[in-house]
Amino acid sequence: MGVVAWLKSLFVLQLLIGFVFVVSGLIINFIQLCTCVLWPINKQLYRKINTRLSYSLWSQLVMLLEWWSGTECTLYTDQATVDKFGKEHVVIILNHNYEIDFLCGWTMCERYGVLGSSKVLAKHELLKVPLIGWTWYFLEIVFCKRKWEEDRETVFSGLNRLRDYPEYMWFLLYCEGTRFTEKKHQISMQVAESKGLPKLKYHLLPRTKGFTTTLQCLKGTVKAVYDVTLNFKDKQNPTLLGIVNGKKYKADLSIRRFPVEEIPDDEKECADWLHKLYQEKDALQEHYEKEGCFPGPTIKTKRRVWTLLNFLFWATLLLSPLINFAWDVFVSGSPLLIIGFMIFLIVASVAVRRLIGVTEVKKTGSSYGNTEAKKEN
User: Fold this and answer.
1) Which residues form a coiled coil (predicted)?
2) Are 296 and 76 in contact (CB under 8 A)?
3) Over pLDDT 90: what percentage of the chain?
4) Residue 277 pLDDT exceeds 50
5) Is residue 251 a part of any domain in this protein?
6) 109-133 residue pLDDT tens
7) Less Cβ crowding at N or C end of the chain, within 10 Å?
8) Strand 90-94 and strand 298-300: pairing?
9) Is the confidence at residue 18, as pLDDT, over 80?
10) For all residues of the chain together, what is the average pLDDT?
């Protein structure tokens, strides 16, 4: 293990990075709360401010991927498609197989200037997660309980509200509804068989309602759908904890652009189009499994320095007083102060670990296999 790799594995450094993210996030959330007074006065100004505040928080996670772990992202697409990145409102369809798939998506958003304005159709439970859910709330993220009877009004109103969004946005959809596991896949393919749909090998059966509703509500705003299929070299199974430990991964993303004019307006035909798309995504994954790469030309985009500069700003602002305080505590010789500070460190480490735990596949919930949940959906 080299010196740099050893430093990255040190718990104290990881804890300091977590401290910067958590405290800066709380500060950003407080500022976002204060900006709510702007909403009835100037909605677009509120949005532009919150886009940049959100960027300041999310880019710290992108910094971990790009600068701390050195993970590389290669695009399999054509230059004409890349030239449109960050210049139009789009819907992103991404396979949901890995703990850091969202982070790879955010990396692409950052490199093309739409990280702060990126959107997602998120499960309602995430609204309660500090930093993540709170920041998304101020960003007008659409939350759903995945029970259409309860979600209908919320989803329609939330999506319609985004029609006049002033910044170019990438709206991410995980059409599979939950992360891929073997158990979920078996159940999903039983559903596919019962509905007479072709079986998929590398994906779960897509849930079409969210996709068709999103296109219906954002028609005239969204210009294209980007189909993104993600995989990792050498059959790596990346985790956020691995990123925090400085482990380097190599991500490959196959990206295809479909103008909305090519997608049927009729709900059933649109759903059929999505099923066909997932059959094509499955074929792409099959090709990757055999060849170790996706078909087509490759483009490597460069990481930008802004994520690193943003983190260094927050680290300088927050770590200097923390280090000074820690020094004063230990030189004071007071057992109570020292014990109190150690308890603070333990609580902070547990908090950071719990935030990481939100991304772990084994902890993600799903209605697959739950008979009552299926009836409600």
Assistant:
1) none
2) yes
3) 64
4) yes
5) yes
6) 999 999 999 999 888 888 888 888 8
7) N
8) unpaired
9) yes
10) 88
| Closest to 99 measured CA to CA, from 301, 251, 279, 304 | 251
Q: How many domains does the chain have?
A: 2
Q: Are residues 48 and 107 in the same domain?
A: yes
* Position 285 in a domain: yes
Same structural domain for residues 117 and 26? Answer: yes
Tell me the two tokens of residue 28.
Answer: 């950003």
Mean pLDDT of 69-89: 95
| Token output for 154 | 């919320």
Residues 201 and 224 in one domain: yes
- Check whether residue 328 and residue 185 sit in a common domain: no
pLDDT tens per residue, range 297-350: 999 988 999 999 999 999 999 998 888 877 777 777 788 877 877 787 777 666
What is the rounded distance in angstroms from the CA atom of residue 98 to the CA atom of residue 239?
A: 7
Burial of 251 (0-12, 13-18, 19+ CB in 10 A): buried
pTM for this predicted structure: 0.88
Domain-located, residue 227 = yes
**242 plus 316 within the same structural domain:** no
Beta-carbon count within 10 A of 44 CB: 12
Contacts of 346 (CB under 8 A, 6+ apart): none
> In this structure, what CATH number is given to the domain that contains residue 124?
3.40.1130
- Reply yes or no on whether the pLDDT at 239 is more than 80: yes
Residues 333 and 273 in one domain: no
Q: In whole angstroms, what is the distance from residue 158 CA to residue 156 CA?
A: 6
pLDDT for the residue 374: 45
Looking at the chain, list the stretches that DSSP marks H as alpha helix, in order from N- to C-terminal side. Answer: 3-9, 11-34, 43-63, 79-82, 101-111, 132-138, 148-161, 182-194, 208-217, 240-244, 267-291, 306-332, 335-357, 371-376
CA distances for 311 relative to 86, 301, 307, 321, 350, angstroms: 23, 21, 6, 16, 22
Amino acid type, 281: K
